[in-house]
Amino acid sequence: MNSTYFTRRTIRKYEPREIGEELLERILTAGVRASTTGNMQVYSIIVTRDRAIKEKLAPAHFNQPMVTEAPVVLTFCADFNRFSKWCRQRDAEPGYDNFLSFMTAAIDALIAAQTICNAAEEEGLGICYLGTATYNADMIIEVLELPSLVVPVATVTLGWPAQVPDQPDRLPLEAVVHQEKYVDFTASAIDDLYRAREARSDSIQFVAENGKETLAQVFTDVRYKKSDNEFFSAKFLDAIRRQGFTV
Amino acid sequence: MNSTYFTRRTIRKYEPREIGEELLERILTAGVRASTTGNMQVYSIIVTRDRAIKEKLAPAHFNQPMVTEAPVVLTFCADFNRFSKWCRQRDAEPGYDNFLSFMTAAIDALIAAQTICNAAEEEGLGICYLGTATYNADMIIEVLELPSLVVPVATVTLGWPAQVPDQPDRLPLEAVVHQEKYVDFTASAIDDLYRAREARSDSIQFVAENGKETLAQVFTDVRYKKSDNEFFSAKFLDAIRRQGFTV
Is residue B66 part of a domain? Predict the structure, then answer.
């Protein structure tokens, strides 16, 4: 298989160079050929290049600079709007305003998203996922004028790399892969899996910079705090409900 | 980019031939290098090859034959168990038992899943996503012994293709791709987007076989019924909550 899978890294800085229409269309077409539940294609992709709209999207992504600097911003949405409209025009009563259908549509959106990312990286483009799409779905819904039954689940910035950052470490394969059944972790297994990461000089520096005692505390107390997670859980659930899905 | 993106089709019949350990490990490693939120890797992959366990999983997937016939069944899970255990061992209090964290972990799982599918297909393997992973998450949790904060979100069967089915049609690109903002569909736009699909002989046959008047009715009345969606929504939400996520 192509080596991009193994050499890739997230790219957050892009050259001030456009992505050609033909290339972008080829990448998007790769995404559209990926698996989709019952061939319903219950997702949508918003391609934003316009500077003014990217500037309106930026606050939803906590003003991370790649939103305005990337030539293309892709917003992937769970979408039962188009499908439900089609049903109603064909004497069929759609029943997709529920949690399972939201998840089905979110899965469709993410399968397309990741295929597009893989295809883009194979062409030399760089990508960055912004988790903020779920944090501030309400703001994205407003800026992109998403109708009922359409909810953003992932945003990806796309462009020609202007940096070659170090490849981040990953845990050993056995941290995520279980054979036959889930084998839960003993305390010493956890120690073994995280030892190399915790010993890295960049990890040690990260802990010091944040004034913490352990790397885990940087996650729980600074980067992904319980209070933030709970605040944004309520906000995201509210956005999903306002878009018409019962949760 | 490699042509597999454009020539692929879902494969439901497999040769009775194993997937070599080395190949499987390479494919899984490709998945592990894909994007993950804050490098937390909050997902897990259960690799099931054992016939007896596949037979126990089969009912969760409505006994679709590929579950027992495929040499490998992959179950992709949203997983905050390992990460939370690590936090607790490092004097850090995890706060990931909420809906946002569930979604973050589900997104991580699906990004890995689809990278693995793309890499597998590039190697000549065939894949099939089983949407039933969310329908019957409770049954999968029991068979695979998934602990608290672990929820299956996708199952993929993997093997060497023993069939070359027709490639399914897809809607025109403009059905899923919107430029700059979401442009909602007029009635005539819906007609245009679905015209070719509805005119296909296999679509016409499908409508007739199901005793329906329109293709949309096959979806709303037979394949993805409102009553089923609501039943499985409640069941999936219950499974998520019992695994410890507040929704």
Answer: yes
β-bridge mates for residue B154, sequence order = B76
Nearest residue, CB atoms, A111 vs list B110, B187, B226:
B110
State which residues form the domain around B93.
Answer: 4-166
B41: chain A residues, CB-CB within 8 Å: 170-171, 175-176
In a domain, A146, yes or no: yes
What is the CATH classification number for the domain harbouring A11? 3.40.109.10
Burial A119-146 (b: 16+ CB within 10 A, else e): bbbbeebbbbbbbbbbbbbbbbbebbeb
Q: What is the pLDDT of residues A98-127, one digit of tens each?
A: 999 999 999 999 999 999 999 999 999 999
Mutation target for B interface from A3, A110, A122: give the one with most B CBs within 10 A: A110
Please tell me the predicted confidence (pLDDT) of residue B2.
85
CA separation for the pair B200, A116 (Å, rounded): 28
Q: Kindly state the percentage of chain A with pLDDT values over 70.
A: 100
Name which of B111, B49, B22, B139 is nearest A127 in CA terms: B111
- Number of separate domains in chain B: 1
Strand order in the sheet with A150-159: A126-130, A150-159, A72-79, A43-48, B177-179
Report yes or no on A55 lying in a domain. yes
pLDDT score, position A239: 98
In this prediction, residue A1 carries a pLDDT of 84
pLDDT for A2 beyond 90: no
CA proximity to B115, closest of A160, A242, A235, A129: A129
Contacts of A86 in chain B (CB under 8 A): 190, 193-194, 216
For all residues of chain A together, what is the average pLDDT?
97
Provide the pLDDT confidence category of residue B1 given band limits of 50, 70 and 90: confident
Dist. CA B233–CA B239, nearest whole Å: 10
Give the residue from A25, A62, A177, A192 with the most B CB atoms within 10 Å of its CB, the best one to mutate.
A177
Encode pLDDT of B18-32 as tens digits.
999 999 999 999 999
